[in-house]
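Form 7-S
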Amino acid sequence: MIVSSAAKMAADAQQANHESNELEREAKVARAQGAEQERKLRADQSREQAKRRVAILKGGVTTEGSPTDMLLDAAREDDSEARWARFGQTEAARAKEREARYRRRQSILDHLSGTSSLGTSLINLNN
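Output:
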């Protein structure tokens, strides 16, 4: 019985460690996806900004006054959108990292409490 308890503890600890490693890997992927999503958004927005400039210039409008303000507002909104995209992925990564730390700590606590109960069982068998 003691051997099977020890084997179960070891298997549980190994499973928790595997899960925490997997969550950490997923967190890295989420961060990379956020950076890539931000890069793509910025590239798309840059192309759109260039199209807006061309349209304004074709219309014979100077770059002073309200057209410039419109371009600046659009650039600010584009930047904000890109930052929010990355922020969302960063938060998802942080959540996965927190869960990984929690599972790793839980595995250690389970191991320690299991070791303690095994020691108690062994002491009881010797008496």
